[in-house]
Specification:
globular, 21 helices, 3 strands, homodimer, mainly alpha
């Protein structure tokens, strides 16, 4: 048995090495590559992915898992061995259930979908994109059928991104969150002019912003000796290895745009740096789930980075780099970075209204995958829903249904991870604050104890648990929007005075 | 037959994709990677190399080549098909002749050798490095035996790096070059104080140097839309794809250190950008040889970059960025960048004495591989030879026998490529100048016609010919040091006045 398990680990390592190479190629593509390098890059990426899929779905893996099933049952499912086998089985089953030609077809449709989406968004015309989206929805429905599901096809896709979730659960969680959120949104919407962030807009030295961003990473405990920060059009994090974690950020039209991008990616980066090096390349050597990953990024971006204690500590550094703002108080900054704008664009949304964007996308993609909404009707339904919630419809498809990249590929089922991340983050903070040092630190602007707590309870557990399991283990319950709602309520009531 | 050939191309493409991924990983390692990323990077690189070796040396390749041998004979060996089969056969035979455990052993010995060399150089102690070097020499002798050779084991290694060369030929070429060179060196050595480059030393803005380097790349025709320039500890060029060519440079203690590094790598880069995109991934989709590659880098670094017409054109840009040097004339710059220093360090050597370093290394590694020189005697022999040629022995092993990285791995046989590159470059210039536009351009500081000529006659031929074959085709003869000697003689007689 031990030999079979070692063989399984060797296969996992091969997959990790192929994934590692893909990761480096992908990072370089977004950070350094000239556009004329694209043909070779796309081909090399596809080749490595195909090799990995061949290895993962080989009969040998099935036989090893079969052999090891008794051995596995005799073990704690959250022991290293138990979790390795379980995670490998999950990956293997997903890989073999989807036929090779469907995989290839999805890959082609994604490439074409992405290119068409770029053009359609440019033209602000959904009509251009509709045929590709129809094809993508169809292929994802086929994948859902092949994978099998709990109650409805969309469940299969949700489970791909956040293990153990399903549409009814997501709807229940979103509803609870929405019920608590909407009254707050309405209160704030009547007082939008109470917060001013105009002093953050204008022309600020990029060199100084860059230094400030590096200091922010140091401040939250990201180890720049074991990683780096670069620029890219869309910020992202690549954890190649715990000792080599790459973050990117981008400058925006506000002084703090890059800062919050950096803090967000820094949160992802802390997770990647905190994974146990010894487990690298094993099935459990990675994060528990996407939702859990998002909990860490939202934690450092919002719960920490938009908190008053953070600004009390960080304010002198901001003024050091931007002395022209020295007449602005800590309080001015704290309020400005928490300004609610009710943007129709998800990636520009403030903390309060961000999840409204997710509710909309989740519900529409659920209906499309389950066959209750036709692609051709999507823009109309989208625009009506936006009008109902935000009080105004999008000016055009570019700031409406075409704004996100996700539907141009095969990522339906991904959006809810963002909301889970938000919800998890406050559940985790609630648990972490039971540690007095963490609570005192957070109140005083010293976030090292919080970082250590996350490292011990979340990062170091790597993939021993699924995201939902780890949440349950650490907080004693499943996804519960109440701590998140309580946090938002307290914060925005105080800032907007209602 | 056509089907077998297509299959061969498909295998070549797989090898190219694996090599491509290794290339990106290697570039990133030297440009971006934090040192703590090394363990995963080394493992991933070794894994990709092993996969490529498995594919190249598989019986299937042997069978395809066997099947295609008649087809090949019916074709021009320099047609696309003929050259593809010939190049694939050469690679295949080298791959299968060296046993897998010898390959693995060489890889391990290289890694250990490199680490030990770093430490030994730091300590300036050859004794520390000697056991590793003994092992490396032994393994390379085994490889030479396995590969087979013309007259002596070292021939096998030379042929690895520059197809068709062998020790007796290299010695003959080096002797001719040396005979012409030494009288020049002696003349110049008596007049070293006639040229002053002290004004190039000091503290110059790196930002301004960077801009100047970018302009130099533009000036020689390197397309920065299809590549980029970065910094690394050791300058190098990675041609991932004709549309994605990466150069690196480094700042030195002279204003022009980075500039000449950049021009050197720019020459390599022009070759890589000039390879036909349609042939990428086929056996002929790469440069003719290392020596031919080096001819292009030395061409742009020295023959162009250290010429008077180059400085007449480039001088205003230098003064634009460094107005503090405006009292210095074009002539001051031209003389300064051609100053002979007789450095004992190869990588710091001037154009005149550079090849003396190669003669020394070539002769010593030849003796070691052929069993005529024991590793333990190496430093003594080295130091005596240096004293005889340079007039003074190295102060310690660090500036002597330990100075180069090559012997810490399995690169014996590589050094002569540098001298071939120098010799080729002037033979090519002689041929190119028969084109009037090229000659006039070079005299007037317009190097575009020269660049176009090289693209047409060298770069676009890619791997249809070996380096020696291409040289013969383009210049009508084999390696001939006379044009190079005539060039050096005219240049240094004028500068040093003898």
């Amino acid at each position: 048995m031990e030999a079979s398990f070692q063989k399984l680990l060797a296969i996992s390592r091969e997959l990790a090495l192929l994934g590692y190479a893909q990761g480096v190629l992908g990072w370089d593509e977004q950070v350094n590559m000239p556009p004329t390098g694209a043909p070779a890059r796309a081909e090399a990426g596809a080749y490595l992915a195909q090799k990995a899929h061949e290895i993962l779905s080989s009969p040998q893996v099935g036989e090893l898992l079969e052999k090891l099933s008794g051995w596995e049952k005799a073990r704690d499912p959250h022991s290293f061995e138990g979790a390795c086998i379980r995670r490998m089985r999950r990956n293997y089953e997903k890989a073999v259930k989807i036929p090779a030609d469907l995989v290839a077809e999805m890959s082609r449709a994604s490439s074409e979908g992405f290119q068409t989406w770029l053009a359609a968004r440019q033209e602000q015309s959904f009509r251009l994109f509709a045929p590709k989206l129809e094809r993508l929805v169809d292929l994802q429905r086929q994948a859902a059928q092949a994978l099998g599901f709990r109650s409805e096809p969309y469940d299969a896709l949700l489970d791909l991104f956040e293990e153990g979730t399903y549409a009814a659960l997501v709807e229940e969680v979103c509803q609870k969150l929405e019920e608590g959120l909407m009254p707050l949104v309405h209160e704030v919407a009547q007082r939008l002019d109470r917060v001013d962030d105009s002093f953050l807009r204008g022309s600020f030295s990029k060199e100084a912003q860059w230094q400030l961003n590096l200091e922010a990473l140091d401040f939250i405990g990201f180890d720049r000796q074991k990683g780096r920060l670069d620029q890219s059009a869309h910020p992202f994090t690549s954890g190649f290895y715990p000792g080599d974690v790459r973050l990117t950020t981008r400058f925006g039209d506000s002084l703090t745009s890059a800062l919050f991008s950096t803090l967000h990616e820094g949160g992802h980066g802390l997770y990647e740096q905190g994974l146990p090096e010894a487990w690298w390349g094993t099935p459990v050597g990675e994060a528990a789930s996407l939702g859990m990953h998002e909990s860490q990024s939202r934690l450092w971006e919002n719960v920490v980075g938009r908190s008053r204690p953070f600004w009390e500590r960080f304010y002198p550094r901001v003024i050091h780099y931007f002395p022209e703002l020295k007449d602005r108080s800590v309080e001015d900054f704290y309020r400005a970075v928490n300004r609610v704008e009710m943007s129709l664009i998800r990636v520009e949304a403030d903390e309060l209204t961000y999840n409204l964007h997710i509710f909309l996308r989740f519900r529409l993609e659920r209906q499309m995958i389950n066959g209750q909404l036709e692609v051709k009707d999507l823009p109309e339904v989208w625009n009506e829903a936006v009008k109902a919630t935000w009080g105004r419809p999008p000016a055009h498809d570019g700031e409406g249904v075409l704004q996100d990249v996700h539907w141009s590929g095969t990522s339906m089922g991904y959006f809810p991870s963002y909301t889970f991340g938000n919800i998890y983050s406050l559940q985790l903070v609630e648990a972490a604050r039971k540690d007095e040092e963490v609570a005192r630190g957070m109140d005083e602007g010293n976030f090292q104890p919080l970082g250590r707590w996350m490292r011990e309870h979340i990062h170091q557990k790597a993939g021993l648990y699924s995201g939902l399991e780890l949440l349950e283990k650490v907080t004693g319950r499943g996804p519960d929007p109440q701590p998140y709602l309580a946090y938002l309520r307290a914060k925005y009531q105080e800032i907007y005075g209602f």
